[in-house]
Design brief:
Elements lengths: L4 E3 L5 E6 L2 E6 L6 E5 L7 E9 L5 E8 L2 H6 L1 E4 L6 E10 L11 E7 L6 E7 L6 E3 L8 E7 L14 E6 L4 E2 L3 E5 L5 E5 L8 E9 L12 E5 L5 E9 L2 E4 L2 H6 L7 E13 L2 E17 L4 E19 L4 E21 L3 E2 L3 E17 L4 E13 L4 E14 L1
Parallel strand pairs: 11-18
Antiparallel strand pairs: 1-4, 2-3, 4-7, 5-6, 5-8, 8-9, 10-12, 12-16, 13-14, 13-17, 15-16, 17-18, 19-21, 19-28, 20-28, 21-22, 22-23, 23-24, 24-25, 24-26, 26-27, 27-28
Length: 404
């Protein structure tokens, strides 16, 4: 029958302070090391043998004990005197009710007794602005923070060191561990670490340091790191060139003799008030103008083609917001303005002016040169519908803009 045992180390630390000076005082008579294991059933007694294992994997016996009737029943003893920090092995032998050793029930395991050090955090500093605030929309954001305190030891992923410290940020809902520890100070009072900013949400976090024994720093004002956006809303203003290409419905082509409208321009504005770690949401207004000219054997035609749409906007930032992918879609109007047919002998038609419902969907990529200036390229598909035509146009765009 397999057995498990648990080994717990409790160290009681007393803190006394006077003025700005504090000292940790350890009371040896307050250290007790309970040792428990899983019962093997109806047995006479257990024999517990503990050996210390050194760095060369050599071992020496440091504790041996045969349980009393009460200890056998409770599967619980105190190790006295208490063992110092280090690596140990424990062998538990089982004697049946006849006092005969049951070799097949003997168990062996190894464990580590860690040194207890109370970690303290005095302040948390974001490297870029020397404050306890980190901005998700900062172009230079690298997620690096500096922690000052006391008993800030190195991390041990294997959990086999006698002394180590774990670090993490918590907002009460989830825990974020550092992506990388960049440096430690020799006096264990300063640690520089880097976090993956994709894992941090807007809100207030506490930087917690926890030592090998489970002692941890408090969630105090000194350990706060605020994660936020520098601007509550982004406003993008942009203008550029657009090249409409007629994809389907031959009505326009039949009258104009072309599917391309190169004399065109574009402008737009977006308002982005909703920001999340996965992307930004907002609304926008997009418009384009094309001067139409067509020459056919029997006539020439000219006019103005205007698109205007209100759209919902999604921004997805990449590479610390140096690149933003925009998806947008919405509804609006297509305005055919002052379309005139010109025939021989100075004969002209009455101007055609009509407004039709249309929908717009598009994709853009913005490239930021600094916090405000950006260039963008992309394309929109616009579908115009009325009783005479269902016109589909694709509009490649190239523009420059400024984000306020």
């Amino acid at each position: 029958m397999p057995m498990k045992f648990k080994y717990y180390l409790f160290i009681l630390l007393l803190f006394f302070s006077f003025a700005a000076y504090s000292q940790v005082i350890l009371q040896p008579n307050e250290i007790r090391q309970p040792f428990t294991w899983t019962s093997a059933g109806d047995v006479l007694k257990y024999e517990i043998l503990i050996k210390e294992i050194d760095k060369k994997n050599n071992s020496r016996e440091v504790f041996i004990h045969e349980t009393t009737e009460e200890e056998t029943q409770n599967c619980f003893i105190y190790i006295e005197p208490a063992l110092p920090a280090g690596k140990y092995s424990a062998t538990i032998k089982v004697y049946n009710i006849l006092g005969i050793l049951e070799d097949e029930l003997t168990t062996y395991s190894e464990f580590i007794i860690h040194k207890a050090h109370q970690p303290e955090v005095f302040d948390v500093e974001y490297v870029l602005n020397k404050r306890s605030v980190i901005y998700l929309d900062d172009l230079e954001n690298d997620g690096i923070i500096v922690v000052n305190g006391r008993n800030l030891f190195e991390i041990d992923r294997s959990k086999e060191s006698i002394v180590y410290t774990e670090y993490f940020l918590t907002n009460g809902h989830h825990i974020v561990e550092p992506e990388e520890i960049l440096s430690y100070s020799e006096n264990n009072r300063r640690v520089t670490m880097k976090f993956d900013m994709k894992k941090l949400h807007v809100g207030k976090y506490y930087l917690v340091a926890r030592d090998a024994s489970g002692l941890h720093s408090g969630q105090t004002a000194a350990s706060i790191l605020n994660v936020k956006f520098k601007k509550s809303m982004d406003v993008d203003l942009k203008a550029g060139y657009v090249f409409p290409v007629l994809l389907h419905d031959e009505t326009m082509n039949n009258y104009l003799g072309t599917n391309f409208f190169p004399l065109s321009g574009y402008a737009g504005v977006s308002f982005i008030p909703l920001k999340f770690h996965w992307g930004y949401l907002g609304i926008g207004l997009r418009g384009s103008y094309s001067r139409i000219n067509g020459t056919l054997p029997d006539y020439t035609i000219d006019g103005n083609l205007i698109f205007c749409h209100g759209v919902f906007v999604l921004h997805k930032p990449f590479f610390n917001r140096r690149i933003i992918l925009e998806l947008h879609a919405g509804v609006g109007i297509t305005y055919f303005s002052d379309f005139d047919f010109h025939y021989d002998h100075n004969v002209n038609s009455d101007p055609l002016n009509t407004v039709s419902l249309s929908v717009d969907a598009g994709l853009l990529i913005q490239f930021y040169f600094n916090r405000g200036l950006f260039a963008e390229i992309g394309a929109d598909y616009i579908l115009t519908m009325n009783q005479d035509l269902t016109m589909g146009i694709i509009q490649p765009t190239a523009a420059v803009g400024w984000q306020f």
